[in-house]
Specification:
By secondary structure, the chain is mainly β. It folds into 4 domains: 141 residues, OB fold (Dihydrolipoamide Acetyltransferase, E2P), CATH 2.40.50.140; 85 residues, OB fold (Dihydrolipoamide Acetyltransferase, E2P) (Beta Barrel); 94 residues, Beta Barrel (OB fold (Dihydrolipoamide Acetyltransferase, E2P)), CATH 2.40.50; 60 residues, OB fold (Dihydrolipoamide Acetyltransferase, E2P). Helix content is 9%, strand content 46%. The chain is built from 4 helices and 25 strands. Strands 1-3-4-6-5 form a 5-stranded mixed β-barrel. A 5-stranded mixed β-barrel has the order 7-9-10-12-11. The protein has a 5-stranded mixed barrel with strand order 14-16-17-19-18.
């Protein structure tokens, strides 16, 4: 009964739900079992089961029946904060289509209790936009109904080679690693996207994508798919090829109002406020960084953004126009929805025009670095100068960063200093 109550827990209390289920059973002359009666109560409240083809129109929880088409054994992975996790995937289908179920941590162990051909009832959060819907499973149970569909999944699934036509969104720097046999290797990470969504791409042969600029479109042949906590990611190696494409690929963007827990999103907007990076030590002893900012999209809606790892050290100032790709929706410590950027994510700062300014102010230390405070604005200096002195400067400013062409230290004006002191104690 609790399984179905989660579909309507925002509409009535659990006690009221149980009372209505009992009434349904009584009205049937005890011909209905509790599970069937609970489904009828859910239907009466407008939250009936859906077909797989209708998952794309579902914005929150969904409940549906499906047949198990294929199973994957649970796999262990490491989260950005160093904690170990467990994930498993199940491909299911009904008469209207296919869906990929993702089960995390303790739910992943339940895969051992399923078998191909079984019909199950799934409660989960759909994430659509790909070739088939991805559903993060909240609960699952066996169902006593029949579903007629082919038991051969049509989706290529993880571990199967695919050809992709994508736009290169961001490319990292090559990194070295040690193979299991002790030999050194090199790999490169990128973020790519197309009309189906945004994906992490790992090149085990960096030469495949080196020299390709972000924003260019390419055709990738022989990419291998793999399910992760963040959805599907692709890898390419010696058997893959990458060639330029002339097609203009549009990557769909979301708005803040679309962001839900457990989904992956790409947005465009501006930085409202930003905090300096903080250093922390992960559970496995690595030193990393995290940074918080407040983001506003084109509609004016705001959402907190948490940046993990090397990206936390990027120069960001309020007013920056940015785009974030493949950011993960999570609950914050106070229950609010946040966007998290870590591996597989990209943050792009859009170009802004340089402006020539002449300013007078005082050189002060700030959380971002040494700045000139003018009284109504603060300009972060490109280079460090002596702190505490009044200065007159001329130069260019772009994204809050001031590059002085001329910097003149001024002697304090005794008269001005006395007038300011008089404001505090006229007897001085």
């Amino acid at each position: 009964m609790k399984f179905h109550y989660r579909l309507v827990d925002d509409l009535l209390t659990e006690d009221e739900f149980e009372r209505r289920v009992e009434e349904k059973v009584a009205e049937s002359g005890d011909l209905l079992d509790e599970q069937t009666a609970a489904m009828l109560v859910v239907r009466d409240l407008g939250r009936s089961h859906v077909r797989i083809r209708d998952l794309s129109a579902t914005t929150s929880l969904a409940c549906f029946f499906a047949k198990v088409l294929s199973l994957q054994e649970p796999r262990e992975f490491e989260r950005p904060d160093g904690r170990k996790g467990l994930v498993a995937n199940v491909t299911v289908g009904d008469e209207t289509g296919r869906a990929r179920l993702t089960l995390w941590d303790e739910k992943a162990t339940a895969v051992s209790e399923l078998e191909v051909g079984a019909v199950i009832e799934i409660l989960g959060r759909p994430k659509c936009g790909g070739k088939i819907p991805d559903v993060t499973v909240l609960a699952i149970q066996e169902a006593a109904c029949e579903i007629n569909c082919e038991e051969t999944p049509t989706d290529p699934g993880p571990g199967v080679s695919r050809d992709l036509e994508v736009r290169l969104i961001a490319v990292g720097s090559p990194r070295t690693f040690v193979r299991r046999d002790g030999t050194p290797g090199e790999m490169l990470e990128a973020v790519v996207g197309n009309e189906e969504g945004v994906f992490r791409l790992v090149a085990w042969l960096p030469a495949l994508i080196s020299g390709i600029e972000p924003g260019e479109s390419v055709v990738i042949r022989g990419a291998l798919a793999r399910d992760t906590e963040r959805g599907i990611e692709y890898s390419i190696g010696e058997t893959a090829s990458v060639a330029p494409s002339d097609r203009q690929i549009t990557v769909p963007l979301n708005s803040v109002s679309d962001v839900k827990e457990g989904g992956s999103y790409s947005l465009s907007g501006r930085v409202v406020s930003v905090q300096p990076p903080r250093t922390f030590t992960t559970r496995n002893g690595r030193v990393s960084q995290v940074r918080n900012l407040l983001f506003e999209d084109e509609t004016g809606d705001e959402i907190p953004v948490v940046i993990w790892g090397e990206r936390a050290d990027e120069h960001l100032v309020p007013g920056d126009r940015i785009e974030v790709y493949n950011a993960f929706g999570r609950r914050g410590r106070f229950g609010e929805i946040e966007l998290h950027l870590s591996w597989g994510s990209a943050l792009l700062t859009l170009e802004q025009e340089e402006e020539t300014v002449e300013i007078e102010g005082t050189v002060i230390p700030t959380a971002e670095g040494v700045s000139i405070e003018t009284g109504d604005s603060s300009y972060l200096l490109e280079r460090v100068v002596s702190i505490g002195y009044p200065v007159r400067a001329r130069g260019t400013v772009q994204r809050g960063l001031f590059r002085p062409d001329n910097l003149e230290f001024m002697q304090p004006d005794p008269g001005s200093l006395k007038r300011r002191l008089d404001l505090f104690d006229p007897q001085i």
